[in-house]
């Protein structure tokens, strides 16, 4: 596994650790690309904080900034890093203890 | 951080390898302890389908069939799109221990690096827009 994959997952978890950044990501996932102003109108977060969090999320590759009308930057959620983090979680969430317990019970009964 | 790529579990079962083998490779066995129903075409390259009441299903692609010591398949990773090419590899190995069986399950491949991640996350317009973003931050800071 390339080392940057781990770094990608780490950035996702750092991003998600903050409630304001979770709200921003959720808003972009829900409503599609949006400007900082749109986000400030929709969320109970100050514009300054939104700018700071969007800068961090952009740096982390979790959102990309793209040109919009009248030079206003629109932010778009990038799902690829989320899928890397999802793979980390898939390993932690995979349950083999349950099925193996069921297998043992099944064999004892047959 | 340490990305978990594999999961391993070992259980000692008080039944013969032949009996354990049947439980993990037949529709009757798999459809009882694993899923609520199962179909299986037991051969390398064959498929199996486990279904659960409630509608959940898992499609297995069988990779190894070496009775009664090794059975392996690949399947979809939970959380990824159904047609995603990345799959984990699950291998059951059976060793006789006295009259019983030591069953080892290894599931690996959780940390497969998707090609598109590097492409999407590390180049493209992210850097090109860094300057623009800086201007935005200044604008917002000034506002």
Query: Largest beta sheet of chain A, briefly?
Result: 3 strands, antiparallel
Strand percentage of chain A: 5-15%
The percentage helix of chain A is 55-70%
Strand proportion of chain B, as a percent range, falls in 35-45%
Report the strand count of chain B: 7
The number of strands of chain A is 3
Largest interface: A-B, 50 and 52 residues
Order of helices and strands of chain A: HHEHHEEHH
The span between the termini of chain B is: 39 Å
Q: Pairing-aware structural class of the strands and helices of chain A?
A: mainly alpha
* Main beta sheet of chain B: 7 strands, antiparallel
Shape, principal axes of CA atoms of chain A: elongated
Count of DSSP H/I helices of chain B: 5
Strand order of the largest sheet of chain A: 1-3-2
Q: How far apart lie the N and C ends of chain A?
A: 43 Å
Structural class of chain B, by secondary structure, is: alpha+beta
Q: Kindly state the mean pLDDT of chain A as a whole number?
A: 91
- Shape descriptor of chain B reads globular
pLDDT < 50 runs, ≥5 residues of chain B: 118-137
Taking all Cα atoms into account, the compactness measure Rg of chain B is: 23 Å
